[in-house]
């Protein structure tokens, strides 16, 4: 790798990747319509609009709401990866016929923008989806989010994914483990367990994202400490991993073979090979970390029928199963076991599904963050 000290261990954003991955990206409804469909990922389910909107046998909107929504469009700010939200918005358009647009930005930037707009009484977004429960809590405390009940509220509450009296819900769970570059790592040396990343071949060749980038990275660090102890994290730090500021930059480095392996979300581990990247995702038998993915309706969205339909659709069978096809674990356990590519997704409660709950985060975040920064010599 040729770098030393902190410089070797931390990679920022080049001007080119900064423009591609970190500036807000707008996908307008018209542009989305020109893009290819999503049925190659999962067949589009049956739709009935004779009396409202019914998809896959579930009522998404009654007649009054659906008719009002068809004359509206929904605006979304998302901290998720571009491809994830792009696919989701396109699928929503295909299934509902309702226009949608989204702006993608890191959750910390999303928080700053929404608070700024709300403070100036110029809120421009109907729905926010973040990768950080703390950022969403801040928006709720600021009065930007409103309580909302989808038609599936009873089940969601029973599953523990409704927060702050309905001001936000977990749209699904994000699952994190690791992946490797198949052109760099020969098949006979392919890693299958977390312990394999401690092998000499991965010294200075592992990528990870800094712990402050969102709940996912915090949950992953907590998993490693809770499952294998502090010693594992320290030994991983001794491997000289490259610390990235964002997943987008990390994934580009992995795809190019600049690193041999990287901690990564299953959704990216599925999407990148589909686009031709030489990447193989690994879900170790010892488990993968799971984290909430907050979704919320804003004060502006509360008056927008299209935004309400999006919330309902995302938590419906159809919306949840499409999320599963991308590599996310559904928030609705009643849908049963799901598959994403070659992977059988674990369900909440399974041994391999290691969730960092809100209580876990409140109790352990400070210590985990301190340990991580020490181990990875990170001060950013």
UniProtKB/TrEMBL annotation:
Keywords: Signal
Domain of life: Bacteria
Species, as recorded: Pseudonocardia autotrophica
Keyword Signal applies: yes
Protein name: Iron-utilization periplasmic protein
Pfam families: SBP_bac_6
Gene designation: fbpA_4
């Amino acid at each position: 790798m040729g770098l030393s000290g902190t410089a070797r261990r931390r990679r920022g954003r080049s001007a080119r990747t900064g423009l591609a991955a970190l500036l807000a990206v707008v996908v307008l409804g018209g542009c989305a319509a020109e893009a290819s469909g999503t049925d190659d990922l999962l067949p589009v389910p049956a739709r009935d609009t004779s009396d409202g909107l019914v998809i896959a046998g579930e009522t998404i909107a009654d007649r009054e709401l659906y008719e009002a929504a068809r004359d509206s469009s929904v605006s979304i700010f998302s901290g998720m990866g571009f491809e994830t939200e792009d696919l989701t918005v396109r699928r929503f358009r295909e299934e509902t016929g309702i226009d949608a647009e989204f702006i993608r930005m890191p959750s910390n930037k999303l928080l700053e923008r929404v608070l700024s707009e709300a403070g100036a009484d110029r809120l421009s977004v109907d729905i926010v989806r973040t990768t950080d429960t703390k950022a969403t809590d801040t928006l709720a405390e600021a009065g930007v989010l409103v309580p909302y009940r989808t038609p599936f509220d009873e089940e969601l509450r029973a599953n523990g994914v409704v927060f702050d009296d309905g001001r936000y819900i977990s749209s699904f769970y994000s699952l994190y483990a690791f992946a490797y570059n198949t052109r760099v790592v020969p098949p006979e040396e392919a890693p299958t367990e977390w312990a394999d990343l401690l092998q000499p071949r991965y010294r200075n060749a592992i990528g990870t994202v800094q712990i402050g980038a969102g709940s996912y990275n915090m949950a992953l660090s907590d998993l490693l400490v809770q499952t294998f102890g502090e010693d594992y994290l320290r030994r991983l730090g001794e491997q000289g991993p490259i610390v990235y500021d964002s997943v987008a930059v990390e994934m580009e480095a992995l795809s190019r073979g600049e690193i041999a392996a990287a901690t990564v979300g299953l959704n990216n581990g599925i999407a990148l090979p589909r686009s031709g990247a030489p990447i193989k995702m690994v879900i170790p038998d010892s488990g993968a970390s799971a984290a909430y993915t907050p979704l919320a309706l804003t004060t502006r969205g509360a008056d927008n029928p299209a935004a309400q339909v999006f919330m309902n659709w995302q938590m419906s069978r159809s919306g949840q199963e499409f999320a599963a096809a991308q590599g996310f674990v559904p928030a609705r356990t009643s849908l049963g076991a799901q598959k994403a590519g070659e992977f059988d997704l674990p369900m909440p409660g399974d041994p391999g599904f290691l969730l960092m709950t809100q209580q876990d985060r409140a109790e352990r975040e400070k210590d985990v963050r301190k340990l991580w920064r020490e181990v990875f010599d990170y001060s950013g």
